[in-house]
Amino acid sequence: MLEMSRDGWLAVALAVVLLGSVGLFAVDVGTSTPDPVEFDDTVQVGLSLEEQFALENDVKLPRAQVFYSKYSYVVGYQGVERFVDERAQPTHTDRFGYPLAVYVTDYSAVDVELREDGYPVADENPPWIDAESAWFVAGSDARSPAGETVVAFSDRDDAEAFASAHGGEVLAWNDVLESEFDIDDAEVVRDRLDDRLAEADETSTQADTLRDRPVSVVVGEDADTIQAAVDAAPANTTVAVPAGRYDERVEIDKPITLAGEGDATIAGPGWGSVVTVTANRTAVTGFEITGVGDETAGTDVVPDHGPEERSGRGEGWDEELTEHYAGGDAGVAISGGAEGLVADVSIRTPSNGVLLYESPDTVVRNVTVDGAEISREGRAGVNAIYSAAVIEDSTIRNGRDGVYTHESADIVIRNNTVVGNRLGVHLMHTSDAVIVGNEFREQDATGIYVMTGPERIAIVDNTVRDTDTGIIPDSDDSYIASNVVEGTQVGIKQNTASSVIEGNVVAGNDVGVEERSVLPTNRIVRNDFVGNRDHVTAANGPLRIWSDDGAGNYWQGATALSTIGERPSSYSPTDSVHERLHLTDGTAMLARAPALEAISGFEGMVPGLRTDAVIDSAPTCEPNNPTLLERTAWADQAWTCEQATG
């Protein structure tokens, strides 16, 4: 624990006040209007990487780029409507300042047409024009991967002609700024969560009906081997496998249920996948599976698809990834088999446990996977490629990735226990995923790792403990809530944009949150920070304000900060004095020191003039999530409001 005398602390506080007042200056934005830049040189928001990769070269989506008075980078918005929506957020001006210039793409300068899906196409990129001089068509048939989009023209006649051909209304810039658009942002993710989980319940219930098929063949009575029984079974029936050991590999190419009874073991030869499925509505239940091959990459289960069957995925950008990750051996490998079920199965594997390739609406439930003892080896407990599956109530131990996904939008991963892997859940190019109610322990690297900038991820009600990094949610428009992150080197590596991070408990970590976001567009409120060595560290970037509409977070050490007038004192976990309040005795006396009151008041008055910092202008005096906090070892270190004011 760091220790410092009362006089020493007050000297540091006074020095901070004096140095801060000397270094402040007013930003002179000048009178000249900045010129537009290449869109690739902007900080972009509005589309995920996979959505951008999938666009064909002739698709020219509407864009905007904005220069701000308080933000040192040009922001590139994938859609005028996205800028309008962001601008309407209550703290937008506090974070960015006011727009110095707004440019939009000018479709008067190109021959634009709409594809059948509504995407604008043109032979060349539209040039930039000042938004104030443009005319906009809103509510037309024009679309982007994110939904409706606004098309801009420098000539009003062109705008009128476009609206006549494709619908919509012609608006001036001020009218566009007053418009409302349907944006699938983080609040939409939150509001849809119950519906998403209900849909997963329906998928799970539907998969359970595969257990009810009549038995047509019994191994040992009607056929000597499992494979012979599968070959003989009519579609939509059950092959019953009595207890015992069966040394074979099984291939299923029809919709049947393969059901083990008692202690039934399928032992593969140590090469290849043990059970391979290539049919819809197939179930594999009630087995122990061993003898899986150790091949972790390849194309064994990947069909020879032509380019027409890959339409929408881009031209080759993900083929190498597919060949690498979707191949390899597995205990159960399902390729092109939708609406399947793998349940009550135990798998020992040096590669994959369950491999899903183009197998949407498959349910993996109550599956236990024991992988390679060395986490850098092996592959994944459940490996989902182009498969919007439901993975639930399973236990995955000791592998490279507990659950790996690639372009498996809408996947639901819930109520699993994931222990001792390299990564617990590893999302690649997977938007709209739901990760709910899981327990992650002792991962070598990261509990939940969202990579490649997807969108609309829900990470809710998970517990991550005793791992190097708890959660890395590198995504936009995501909802991260009610998680417990405890005992990590870094609790959350925060690099999201336009996301809501609320109601989490971050306790007992070396670093609670490592703030790395370049766009200060997240709403981070009602979280509890207790027992961390550093509650927050911030990389180079803009000021981040972690409060919204009077709601802030609970910070151990900040509860005794006094108020200035009727305004609650602000707290900065990245401030050289504030960051140590919870690490020393005498916090109450120090927090009430006049020098610190001056710091709090000064920060509250000029929040836009600091960078590389996090400021909470409305810290709470007691934890926001006491029930979650009680699940950690740090609840007794948190103050109540009565203690804070006593």
Describe this structure in words.
- The chain is of the alpha/beta class.
- The protein has a domain at about 40-185.
- Helices cover about 20% and strands about 30% of the residues.
- The chain is built from 13 helices and 49 strands.
How is the topology of this model organized?
Layout lengths: L5 H18 L19 E3 L3 H6 L9 E5 L6 E3 L2 H8 L4 H5 L2 E7 L7 E2 L5 E2 L6 E3 L4 E4 L4 E2 L2 E2 L2 E3 L2 H11 L2 E3 L1 H5 L8 H23 L6 E4 L7 H7 L5 E4 L2 E4 L2 E3 L4 E4 L3 E4 L7 E3 L5 E8 L28 H7 L4 E6 L5 E8 L3 E6 L5 E8 L9 E6 L4 E3 L2 E3 L3 E6 L5 E3 L2 E3 L3 E6 L5 E3 L2 E3 L4 E6 L6 E3 L2 E3 L3 E5 L5 E3 L2 E3 L3 E5 L5 E3 L2 E3 L3 E5 L7 E3 L2 E3 L3 E5 L5 E2 L8 E2 L31 H5 L2 H12 L8 E2 L10 H4 L11 H5 L1
Parallel strand pairs: 1-3, 13-14, 14-17, 15-18, 16-19, 17-20, 18-20, 19-21, 20-22, 21-23, 22-24, 23-25, 24-26, 24-27, 25-28, 26-29, 27-30, 28-31, 29-32, 30-33, 31-34, 32-35, 33-36, 34-37, 35-38, 36-39, 37-40, 38-41, 39-42, 40-43, 41-44, 42-45, 43-46, 45-48, 47-49
Antiparallel strand pairs: 2-3, 2-4, 4-7, 5-6, 8-11, 8-12, 9-10
Helix pairs in contact: 1-11
